[in-house]
Amino acid sequence: MDIKIGLADIPRELVVRLPEGQEDVIGVVQQAIDSSSPTFKLEDDKGRQYLIRTDRVAYVEPVSYTHLSCRRSTLCRS
After folding, report:
1. Is the distance from CB of 52 to CB of 14 less than 8 angstroms?
2. pTM
């Protein structure tokens, strides 16, 4: 599963591919914001770590590629 994080004053989104078992990342972000923590940390599926400032988070969006449609059947693979 991927997660998109929109950051204030930055035109591009941060997209992080999460390892299996980290589906509750929105809850992690929400808890960090609610507890007034200045930052929160995410780790992607390759072990890279991201330290993100909570005051810069504009939105968090889970991304599922199972809902994407393909225009050519040769490009679509299950």
Report:
1. yes
2. 0.74
